[in-house]
Amino acid sequence: YLVTHFSDFQLACIGSFLLHESVFFLSGLPFIYLERHGFLTKYKIQAKNNTPAAQGKCITRLLLYHFCVNLPLMMASYPVFKAMGMRSSFPLPSWKEVSAQILFYFIIEDFVFYWGHRILHSKWLYKNVHSVHHEYATPFGLTSEYAHPAEILFLGFATIVGPALTGPHLITLWLWMVLRVLETVEAHCGYHFPWSLSNFLPLYGGADFHDYHHRLLYTKSGNYSSTFVYMDWIFGTDKGYRRLKSLKENSNLKQT
């Protein structure tokens, strides 16, 4: 139905934008509700809560950025993806092809994001660009995309470089976008649940890992990775987090 009634441009740009907005807000808004009403507080990482005014400011800015930055960027990127081989026609790719490509996207995105994010924590870039994202020291799901427009463009490259290299089917691109949005919302949600992926996947960062990054000053934050933690481990930028986690575990053992 989609390929019959809509053009490639409409599906790749407008369709992708609508899918992104739906997944992002539907996955992020529940955490605002939890925080406002104090539900599941035993799983909340920080005791501090954001005010309704601060949450409202975040939503207003996000809508502005999404319509004025993200949507035009998607439209401008269409010729590039088309030239790289992106298609929406049949046949659909096999699950093996989709799985391999998305795994590749996660790996390359983590590498590029790590270095881009680490650069943003240099003094000048943090002060003039990245500090916008760090306005929320107690993050919630929707703050994952709350950032300076320059940062949206800068770190957005990490998300699109993988698909740009492989020229995926639109279905693969949509699935990648959905998984990436869900991952970044979860990393910023402010809650560490028993069912959080970081409890089951050893290399997965999750909310506890990224929440530490938001609590500290820019010169000492560390934990620059997006999805997985191996880049921080390799380059030693997670030492503070590991030390704090070890101290907490030892403290819990003594109490028991």
TrEMBL record:
<keyword id="KW-1133">Transmembrane helix</keyword>
<dbReference type="InterPro" id="IPR006694">
    <property type="entry name" value="Fatty_acid_hydroxylase"/>
</dbReference>
<protein>
    <recommendedName>
        <fullName>Fatty acid hydroxylase domain-containing protein</fullName>
    </recommendedName>
</protein>
<dbReference type="GO" id="GO:0016020">
    <property type="term" value="C:membrane"/>
</dbReference>
<dbReference type="GO" id="GO:0008610">
    <property type="term" value="P:lipid biosynthetic process"/>
</dbReference>
<feature type="transmembrane region" description="Helical">
    <location>
        <begin position="102"/>
        <end position="120"/>
    </location>
</feature>
<keyword id="KW-0472">Membrane</keyword>
<dbReference type="GO" id="GO:0016491">
    <property type="term" value="F:oxidoreductase activity"/>
</dbReference>
<feature type="transmembrane region" description="Helical">
    <location>
        <begin position="12"/>
        <end position="34"/>
    </location>
</feature>
<dbReference type="Pfam" id="PF04116">
    <property type="entry name" value="FA_hydroxylase"/>
</dbReference>
<comment type="similarity">
    <text>Belongs to the sterol desaturase family.</text>
</comment>
<feature type="transmembrane region" description="Helical">
    <location>
        <begin position="152"/>
        <end position="176"/>
    </location>
</feature>
<keyword id="KW-0812">Transmembrane</keyword>
<feature type="domain" description="Fatty acid hydroxylase">
    <location>
        <begin position="103"/>
        <end position="237"/>
    </location>
</feature>
<dbReference type="InterPro" id="IPR050307">
    <property type="entry name" value="Sterol_Desaturase_Related"/>
</dbReference>
<feature type="transmembrane region" description="Helical">
    <location>
        <begin position="62"/>
        <end position="81"/>
    </location>
</feature>
<dbReference type="GO" id="GO:0005506">
    <property type="term" value="F:iron ion binding"/>
</dbReference>
